[in-house]
Amino acid sequence: MRGAPPPLRPPVPTAKASSSSPRPAATTPTPRPTAAANVRSAAPKKAAKDSSRVESIFDQLESVAPLPAPPSVRLPNDKLVCACGDNSCETYDSPKTSYVLTGFDSPESVQVTLEKITERHGSPGDLPEAIIAGEDMDLDELQAAVRRAFGVGYRGEALERASLIYSSQNILAEELKSAMMRLAAGTDIQLVSATKDTGHELIRSEASPRTAALEMAQHPDYEAEFPFKVSFIIQYFNRTGLVRAISSAIADWGLDAEVLIHDDSRSEHREWREGLGATRHILVHSGNLHEIRGYNRLVRMASAEYIVLLQDDDIPPPVPQFLDQGAELFQTLPRLALIGGMTGQIQGGPNSGRFGKPRGNHVKMIPIKDAKGRPFMFVSWVNMGPFLLRRSVFLHAGAFIPSFSCRGDPGIGFDYEYGIRLWKLGFQTGLTMMNFKMHAGGSRSGGTRSSSGRKQRRDMIEARNTRAINTIYKGFYINHTPEGANKPTSKGYRLPLRQICPAARLPSSANAQRWPRVGDMKLPTRNTQDADPGLERLDETEASNGTGMGTR
Can you give the residue ranges of the Glycosyltransferase 2-like domain (predicted)? Predict the structure, then answer.
């Protein structure tokens, strides 16, 4: 089918993500559901409201090590201070226990169950998380039930500790449960299911196979367990006028794919579902967690190795040719882990520049093409929207850094940092043209720029996170062109490769060793003394294995 990545198992990256990263354990393939399970049975419309008729059985929880963590940094006089009420912010981002609720058909029964859960976790700092399958329940009524049971939290958010999950009818019940388990952030996880027996609603709870869930999240067998080749993840907050354009464009592609929407505003519920139609999708309603936490959570939840991260002002092109190119590049370049579709930079040496869709003097055209003549180059880092990435590498690298923003704040710089981190870990970051219409609907004047106060906080976060990046990657990343990467008068332009930081040298050397000189980019020759020896060895190894691009 046009646009879908080739139907083969994604290659296993050859580089080590980190010496401290745990080695992924082998997993047992999940049995495929039978044909009889292809349609979820309709749940009864009436639920028992009398809490005395609800039986709750809580088994012993199972604990395992969490997913790998991203880099952390402590900054003197840090201006980004997250106030999370009487609890630490880690209590919300990394709860001790997650409850996955499935099979409920009334907000009242959900409320009763959440109240019982609250009774079990009365100690300070022990705030459980709830992942609730919405089924056929009304969104507003379900949210009100969560509010009554859990309260509104320190920000007045009803869904501070809960997520409401709605899926298309062509997603099997077991598939949805597995996805909800992957979404859960707790070290302990508890499955809570509602069933009917002689008119009574029995709330049964079981200790989850948390170890298996984490293994599946970190290193799944995509051929045996996951039916999709690509997952689209959309971070959304209250852009009503763009929902139809985004959802219908993806639906029209007709891909063997799934769409996950992180609806931070709990709005446009019906519009998303109608726009996506028969496209397999899951709608996750959360309490304004913002982009870093939203992307991290839904990448865990996703069912494919290839992930497309979109923002709510990215309008897809008529034909998803970028998927063809991305799949081919990922298969050809085992170390390539991230491809940006907006802009990217190299900030030092003769290859300095800000590249992408040309925009005056601010952005230069990508001067290099891949083996099939399509724009593509390696860069130090890329700007968010859209991203095409490998899920396995993303999770083992630690995902985006949550400390780059408080809940509800923009995470300015999280995209730069991840691109640099990949080079540090031995992977590669690339840039192409994906032909999305970006910043649609006047988004540059809305969102985090909609008021002077929000703009000031956005600018503060950007300056703070730039400082954090410089601290984390001291010696590895240096902005040699602070005057602007597109200004040839910058002193950083005149630096030879051997004098610039690895974050600028590695992509420059990778471009030189894989493709000939193109356009105005003055690439060094393969035999120059400035060539990076590590990339030289990598290039020779891949050439002998037949994995090189074949163009010099």
Answer: 231-340
Q: Reduced to 3 DSSP states, what percent helix, strand and coil does the chain have, rounded to the nearest 5?
A: 35, 20, 50
Please tell me the distance from the alpha carbon of residue 441 to that of residue 311, in angstroms, as a whole number.
Answer: 12
User: Is 191 in a helix, a strand, or coil?
Assistant: strand
Query: Which regions of the chain are under pLDDT 70?
Result: 1-66, 196-228, 442-450, 515-552
Q: Are 101 and 203 in contact (CB under 8 A)?
A: no
**Residue 186 tokens, joined:** 């707790």
Encoded tokens for 72 = 């952390």
Distances 315 to 207, 232, 261, 502 between C-alpha atoms, Å: 42, 13, 15, 35
The predicted structure's pLDDT at residue 548: 27
Rounded Cα distance, 69 and 92, in Å = 16
Q: What is the DSSP letter of 198?
A: T
pLDDT digit string, tens, across residues 194-250: 876 544 455 666 655 455 556 656 655 555 555 568 999 999 999 988 999 999 999
Asked if 13 contacts 427 with a C-beta cutoff of 8 angstroms, the reply is yes
- 3-state secondary structure string, 232-291? EEEEECCCHHHHHHHHHHHHHHCCCEEEEEEECCCCCHHHHHHHHCCCCEEEEECCCCCH
Q: What is the pLDDT of residues 368-397, one digit of tens each?
A: 999 999 999 999 999 998 999 999 999 999
Find residue 165's DSSP bridge partners: 133, 284
Secondary structure letter of residue 29 according to DSSP: P
Three-class SS of 51-96? HHHCEEECCCCCECCCCCCCCCCCCCCCCCCCCCCCCCHHHHHCCC
The ranges assigned to domains in the chain are: 51-218, 321-544
Please tell me the predicted confidence (pLDDT) of residue 63. 47
Neighbouring C-alpha atoms within 13 Å toward the C-beta of 305: 25
Peptide bond into 107 cis (omega under 30): no
Residue 17: predicted pLDDT: 36
List Cα–Cα distances, 305 to 5, 341, 362, in angstroms. 10, 18, 33
Check residue 450 and give its pLDDT: 60
What is the distance between the terminal CA atoms of the chain, rounded to a whole angstrom?
Answer: 31
What does the H/E/C string look like for 517-535?
CCCCCCCCCCCCCCCCHHH
Does residue 6 have a cis bond before it (omega within 30 degrees)? no
Instruction: Give the other-Cβ count within 10 Å of 196's Cβ.
Output: 14
Instruction: For residue 79, count other CB atoms closer than 10 A to its CB.
Output: 11
Other beta carbons within 10 Å of 460: 14
- The amino acid that residue 46 corresponds to is K
- Please give the Cα distance from 256 to 279 (Å, whole number): 9
pLDDT in tens, 423-452: 999 999 999 999 999 888 765 555 555 678
**pLDDT value of position 61:** 42
Chain centroid, CA 194 distance in Å = 31
Residue 448, token pair as written in the block: 């985090």
> Cα separation of 406 and 92, whole Å?
11
The H helix count followed by the E strand count for the chain is 15, 17
Residue of 425, 434, 316 lying closest to 375 (CA atoms): 434
